[in-house]
Design a protein that fits this description.
Blueprint lengths: L17 E8 L2 E9 L10 H14 L6 E6 L7 H6 L4 E2 L14 E3 L2 E3 L7 E5 L4 E7 L10 E6 L3
Parallel strand pairs: 2-3
Antiparallel strand pairs: 1-2, 3-7, 4-7, 5-6, 8-9
């Protein structure tokens, strides 16, 4: 992804990482990965963001079965990010029409948003995992609303 930076001059230099954990359940592995992709003005796909996304996709393509990926992708449902993710993983719901951002006023270089008008947060899974339930939860502590998803897979 990108090397983490200390005291970056702006959002494009923050550095982004992907992390994952592997959990054993009855001698079976479940891998869960996450990231927080960088912000770009109006959530547009810049060359830098496309490179960041392509690097993430290269990582995700190597994950085989029993895999869950979640994160703040700073990408809209009709974006390059989401369309490419759907080629390798299943969207875990809730519907893309259910918004997760913003619950607090946001202003950055002329872009302003102060209503829950966008979906930026997602959960995806490998095809061997079934979704039981998924919902966006109310939460006063962040500008993003969390997604809670229950999964079922054979152990």
């Amino acid at each position: 992804m990108q090397s983490p930076k200390h005291n970056p001059p702006d959002h494009s230099h923050e550095g982004r990482v992907y992390i994952e954990i592997m959990v054993r359940i009855n001698d079976k592995k479940l891998t869960v990965g996450t990231t927080h992709l960088s912000y770009s003005d109006h959530f547009m796909i810049t060359d830098q963001k496309k490179n960041e996304i392509d690097t993430l996709l290269d990582i995700l393509k190597k994950r085989k079965g029993r895999y869950i990926f979640a994160g703040d992708l700073n990408s809209l449902p009709d974006s390059y990010t989401v369309s490419q993710l759907e080629k390798i993983l299943s969207h875990s719901e809730p519907a893309y029409s259910q918004n997760s951002w913003t619950t607090k006023p946001f202003k950055y270089e002329g872009f302003c948003e102060n209503k829950l008008n966008r979906r930026l947060d997602y959960i995806y899974n490998s095809k061997d995992i079934n979704i039981v339930d998924s919902e966006i939860l109310e939460c006063p502590y962040s500008d993003h609303l969390p997604i809670q998803t229950s999964f079922n897979f054979s152990i």
